[in-house]
Amino acid sequence: MSVPVVFNRRLGMNEINLLFDLIDNTESSEVVNRDQASKFFQLGEAIAFMSSIDDEAIGGTIVYRDRSRLGMVLAAIGMKKEYQDIGIYTVIKSSLPFFRTVAIRDVDVVVSERPMENNLGFPLCFCLPSWTTSVLERIGFVKQQELFSCTLKIGPEDASNHKEIQWDSKPNFEGARSLIWDEGKTLGLMNSLVWMSLDFAAHTKTLRTLTDENATKFIISIYDSEGIAIVGTLAAKENFWVSDKASNILASTIKETRALDIRFPLIGKGQIEMLKTVTEEIGGFLKKESITLMRRRL
């Protein structure tokens, strides 16, 4: 019996909906907002691959080249159910670099530890479903760090009386980059997904920065998805959040959205206390789910 040949190719912008369809039909995955997903592919470092057998599309991946820390992100995967067991290894591996280069030293991916409740889907969340873990390990990914996906639910009475924040008139992108470099280890966010999220926030004009005395102290990106506020990027100077200034700003920013459901798809251990402080200040209920950062060194 002959082994079927899998052909892998890069998709053009006019073909990207083919992959979105596959992701929508993949177990524990979906593309919630195709408009935002299309904007993601306007980023020059976003790449989509499709794998086929005899002209039948069986699966595909979305990757992102991170030029900040010289890495790559495996951001999403789509698989036809009948090929999920036999094809996923080939689909993932064929979309990754074969060896280390000057521009790409490793590949990062975030995986849920169990089926996630109310998954935001690509590109509002870049977390792969838990069933991909064993395959990623076979490919050479190892568990690097525990991260979190958090949800804050508040009541209508809590989403009022916010204070006006004097944001930079124009987002300080370079200041945001410096902040992440300086505080990434403390926040628990030393990975390429953070840089990808920052690039996406700047591109979609959802990034806000607060700069004082020539140093950026606080950055956040918020996107409103049908009444759900999604905080894709969040970072603050250590002395800023230790003094509770950062939590006060975050609380006011959340109230400003009037959303009662606030999601934080990518949170490091060093940010949990700030979210707890915000929850105490606003009220409501904070739920956190563990997710795992996995890395394959090239």
Describe this protein's structure.
By secondary structure, the chain is of the alpha+beta class. The chain has 2 domains: 7-105 and 129-144, 3-Layer(aba) Sandwich (Aminopeptidase), CATH 3.40.630.30; 153-295, Aminopeptidase, CATH 3.40.630. Helix content is 30%, strand content 33%. The protein is built from 9 helices and 12 strands. The protein has helices at residues 16-24, 34-40, 84-93, 133-139, 173-187, 192-203, 238-242, 245-257, 272-282, and strands at residues 7-10, 46-53, 56-66, 71-79, 106-112, 127-128, 142-153, 207-212, 215-225, 228-236, 261-267, 285-297. Strands 1, 2, 3, 4, 5, 6, 7, 8, 9, 10, 11 and 12 form a 12-stranded mixed beta sheet that branches. Helix 3 (84-93) links the parallel strand 4 (71-79) and strand 5. The chain starts with 6 loop residues before the first strand and ends with a strand. The mean pLDDT is 90.
